[in-house]
Amino acid sequence: MAVAISDAQVETFQRDGVTHLKGVVDRDWLAKLEAGVERNIAHPTPLHTVQTTQGEGGFFLSDICMSQQIPEFRDFMLNGPAPAIAARLMKSQKINFFADTLWVKDVGTSKRTRWHQDQPFFWVDGQMTVIWFPLDPVAKENSLELVRGSHTWNRWFAPELSKDGRDLYRTASGAAFERMPDIESSRGEYEILSWAVEPGDCIAFNGLTVHGAPGNQGSARRRRALSSIWMGDDARYAERPSPGRPHFEGHGLKPGQSVDCGYFPRVWPRPGRLEAERFARFTDAGLQIRN
Ligand SMILES: O=C(O)CCC(=O)C(=O)O
Prior knowledge:
The chain is an alpha+beta fold. The chain has helices spanning 7-16, 27-42, 71-79, 82-90, 273-286, and strands at 18-21, 49-50, 60-64, 95-105, 113-116, 124-125, 128-134, 145-147, 192-193, 202-206, 211-213, 223-231, 236-237, 266-268. It has a single domain (7-286), classed as Jelly Rolls, CATH 2.60.120. The protein contains 5 helices and 14 strands. Residues 101, 103, 113, 118, 130, 132, 144, 211, 213, 225, 227 line the site of 2-oxoglutaric acid.
């Protein structure tokens, strides 16, 4: 299924740092992703996190780099609609795959996904786009929330490990990364965008767009979503003050070098045989990720 994205949607994405696209994933892919999610829940990767702590209602599981062990996700990342969407929105000639993440919140989960930017977690500078695919209908009250235009603030916020509050990037050399403001208790000061979504839709956002999400309350169904992270033409390897999440090793890149090096599969334009073979190498190397 070819995805048609209008010039207006591209401009919205570039201006606001986010856009909601309807009906971009067909039924066959959705069935495959559902099978992948169920396999993932039953067998999370070594990098997964149970975000809910004892006594908190519901259950919140997140995972990362699942496509390295879940064939349905790997197929979707290499051959699904996301690379073309990322290329169009970033106005990029080529797209490299970085990683995927999973977000599962059972009914009654009160724990939020904290307000954060994604790109500070990654050792990459330059264009990055995250595409979030809901696999269940999600009401606006439980949907992803994004601060309009925050990708243009020219501010990088230090990631926090969400489970126990330990901070990353708090070494002396990490001074360039600011603490995330308390958006939740001053929501009125920000223009927060969110949409009710259906399976087949996606929300695409810039790697520096500040976002978070409520738990899953007042709903009768589990809320499952898959995110995919893509790098555009000018994406370069960059070192940060602390290990990234995920932290890739074995690529041999030096800061400033293009990420288009074979380690991170080039998925757009569509890969030829060579790139598909390289992905197998990536799979092995990626398993050395440090948690
Ligand atoms: O689905 C969620 O709760 C959060 C998703 C998210 O933060 C992301 O994809 O970066």
